[in-house]
Amino acid sequence: MTTEVLRTENLSRSFGGVQAVAGVSLTLHAGAVTALVGPNGAGKTTTFNLITGNLRADSGTAAIRGKPIMGLKPWQVARLGVARSFQDLRLFTHMTVRENVLAATETASWFWQPGGSTARRAREARADAALEATGLSALARARAIDLAYAERKFLSMARILAAEADIWLLDEPASGLDLASRTRFGQLLKDAQARGVAICLIEHNLDVVVELSNRIAFLDQGKVLAEGDPDAILKDPALAAIYFGDRPQEAA
Ligand SMILES: Nc1ncnc2c1ncn2[C@@H]1O[C@H](COP(=O)(O)OP(=O)(O)OP(=O)(O)O)[C@@H](O)[C@H]1O
Ligand SMILES: [Mg+2]
Asked: Right CATH number for 1-78+206-252 from 2.60.40.10, 3.10.310.40, 3.40.50.300, 3.40.50.720?
């Protein structure tokens, strides 16, 4: 339950004069859901981008099971067992639903793909199982661009499932979902958690956070202000004031 699989230490990144991430230290554990919570612009997505190699850090380190990952390319981080979703989903909009999921099963770069029809069939079986689990089987041949909003969110989750990664970084996967869809999404997370997946969930809806997470890391202006038990953090009036935009005036 407490096996640490991912750790960042003092990750920092600025864009011009904006310090987007300012020394973020975070740990993810197998079979646990850590919610990354904080107001708009707090640095949540940038933190993911630094971990996954989509952006270079100015300073700080990150490691997966003790192996340093700073400087690796996104596909190299993916090969170490990290699957991520994007706030803007980034589906292959003109490919079919099934093709989108199959693409997520590719475990090697283009020049070397473990070959043969057996491997191909295994990848197809993984893709089909992911479609089944996300309720998208009947839409397998539809183009991603023709899906409804919630279906696109689940397609993004099907891609995560099919990747068979044991670390999931999910950027607002439940935003805008209706209650029934949110319940289905919650079940996907609980099943993954039971299999020992370490999950980091960026989520603005605090009801979802309370229901699904074991820990919260509260981020504001690029810094982790608090980390720990969800109930305690959400009851903290100072954090609530920051979260709901009622920030105390800073001394001039
Ligand atoms: N590529 C970029 N170039 C310039 N500034 C950026 C870039 N990416 C992020 N920022 C800035 O860094 C800060 C943190 O952004 P980030 O997207 O990480 O926030 P967030 O916590 O994910 O917010 P939200 O909840 O709105 O998604 C913001 O001020 C944002 O404008
Ligand atoms: Mg974001």
From this structure: 3.40.50.300
Domain boundaries, the chain: 1-78+206-252
- Separation of alpha carbons 96 and 217, rounded Å: 36
Identify the pLDDT of residue 118: 80
Q: Would you say 35 and 206 are in contact if contact means Cβ atoms under 8 Å apart?
A: no
Nearest CA to ligand 1 atom 3: 15
Integer-rounded Cα radius of gyration of the chain: 18
252 pLDDT tier (thresholds 50, 70, 90): very low
User: What pLDDT digit, counting tens, does each position of 16-74 carry?
Assistant: 999 999 999 999 999 999 999 999 999 999 999 999 999 999 999 999 999 999 999 99
The Cα–Cα gap between 92 and 100 comes to 6
* Ligand 1: centre distance to CA 86 (Å): 13
Q: From the CB of 38, is ligand 1 less than 6 Å away?
A: yes
Chain centre to alpha carbon of residue 55: 15
Query: By alpha-carbon position, which residue is closest to atom 11 of ligand 1?
Result: 20
